[in-house]
Write a structure and sequence with these properties.
It is built from six helices and 14 strands. The strands form three sheets. Strands 3-2-1-4-7-13-14 form a seven-stranded mixed sheet. By secondary structure, it is an alpha/beta fold. It folds into two domains: 140 residues, 3-Layer(aba) Sandwich (Rossmann fold); 65 residues, Alpha-Beta Plaits, CATH 3.30.70.260.
């Protein structure tokens, strides 16, 4: 199966976690696009969705799905999103689509996080995929120097301005043995909006698209 077919497969599998008349959280990215399309075609009547990006908001509205602001809800039953990497404990790297801060905000509202990904995203340790870090523009060079001291190379993502009017640094050269400790430390650096390591808000379930079908990993 192609990667696109695997994304379609897990997008459809995620419908199992959508309860009728509920409000759900919806993430960002090409795999989530497949879930949004599947949701719109499914006939499942939800009360609405809280979106993590303008991209997903526009796609859902175009398909007739009601989009609510995060400020309008107190909690969500489930948040469905993809990942750039996920390890065997449910820790993730996210932010390839530059929506990491809003993704964490929506994930924080949800009781459970369902990650949808193809099998190429499953890793033994996080760090092969560049770690995205959203930063206030004036702090970019300062934050890059901090990563250099850790052995990482931080590169400003060309032409990228987030939905929050901030910039993204992509950090290579890291192997993250303790995701929660890493996330906690980097999030405290002045100028960092958030780091794209999702350890505190790790996945509850991962629906992994494989050549043999969808494999469900529970954490």
């Amino acid at each position: 199966m192609t990667q696109d077919e695997l994304k379609t497969l897990v997008g459809q599998a995620a419908l199992h976690y959508v309860q009728p008349d509920s409000i759900i959280g919806v993430g960002t990215g090409s795999t989530v696009d497949k879930f949004i399309d599947a949701l719109a075609a499914s006939g499942i009547a939800i009360a609405g969705a809280v979106s993590s990006s303008l991209r997903s908001t526009e796609r859902m509205k175009a398909l007739g799905i009601l989009v609510l602001e995060a400020s309008e809800v107190e909690s969500l039953g489930v948040y469905i999103d993809g990942a750039d990497e996920i390890d065997h404990a449910g820790h993730m790297i996210k932010g390839g689509g530059a929506a990491l801060t809003r993704e964490k905000i929506v994930a924080d509202l949800a009781d459970s996080f369902v990650c949808i990904a193809d099998e190429s995203k499953l890793v033994e340790a996080l760090g092969k995929f560049p770690v995205p870090v959203e930063v206030i523009p004036m702090a970019a060079a300062q934050v890059a120097r901090r990563f250099a001291a850790m052995g990482g190379v931080a590169t400003l993502r060309p032409g990228c301005v987030t939905d929050n009017s901030c910039h993204i640094l992509d950090v290579t050269g890291l192997q993250i043995a303790e995701p929660l400790a890493f996330e906690t430390e980097v999030n405290q650096w002045p100028g960092v909006v958030t780091v794209g390591v999702f350890a505190r808000h790790r996945a509850s379930v991962c629906l992994l698209g494989t050549a043999a079908g969808v494999k469900t990993l529970s954490f």
